[in-house]
Design brief:
Layout (H helix, E strand, L loop, with lengths): L1 H18 L6 E9 L12 E9 L4 E9 L8 E6 L8 E4 L7 E3 L2 E10 L5 H5 L3 E6 L7 E4 L1 E3 L2 H20 L1
Antiparallel strand pairs: 1-2, 1-10, 2-3, 3-7, 4-5, 4-8, 6-7, 8-9
């Protein structure tokens, strides 16, 4: 009886997730920047973090990028590029050089509010094939991080329900 109630509950969760109205999805993406992700890798002591929200209908995004370890004058440019992990690709959005970054010492940040993401590269963005790179003089302290979508709650619920059903089925065998 307990298993039947659990199955019914999991089925109800899956049905509710499927029945949700479709509309724009606001995606959340994150990136951890380091020299080891640059192609070829650098020995940069700098690290960074980025978080982006992206509306897949309006193509607008908000982005916050933080870096620790570079001075403002060392940030020659920062850009969003198209490229899978371990590969270089073309720049598709300019985040500007150090003069556009705020902070002090060796902690700087760059914010973009209401940026228009190139629609032709939406599939690359949502599949983890875009990255942020901060470029430095001679490239010796460059840092890079892949923008990776963070699963939204309904995907996690669906995945959990599916795994639960799979485990129940496996226990019967």
């Amino acid at each position: 009886m307990h298993r039947a109630a659990l199955r019914l509950g999991l089925a109800a969760i899956l049905l509710a997730a499927i029945a949700l109205p479709s509309s724009a999805t606001v995606w959340v993406l994150t990136a951890n920047l380091s020299g080891s992700q640059v192609v070829p890798p650098t020995n940069s002591p700098a690290i960074g973090q980025a978080i982006m929200s992206y509306d897949d209908v309006s193509k607008l995004f908000n982005l916050a990028v933080y870096e620790f370890g570079l001075t403002q004058s060392e940030i020659l440019s920062a850009k969003i590029y198209v490229g899978a992990p371990g590969t270089n690709g073309p720049a598709i959005y300019d985040l500007d050089g150090g003069a556009s970054w705020s902070g002090s010492g060796v902690i700087y940040s760059r914010f973009v509010f209401g940026g228009l993401f190139p629609a032709a590269h939406q599939a690359n963005l949502l599949s983890g094939n875009t990255y942020i790179q901060i470029n430095t003089p001679g490239g010796v302290k460059d840092i890079r991080g892949q923008l990776i979508p963070v699963p939204e709650p309904m995907s996690l619920i669906g995945l959990s329900a599916g795994l639960g059903l799979l485990l129940l089925r496996r226990r019967k065998v």
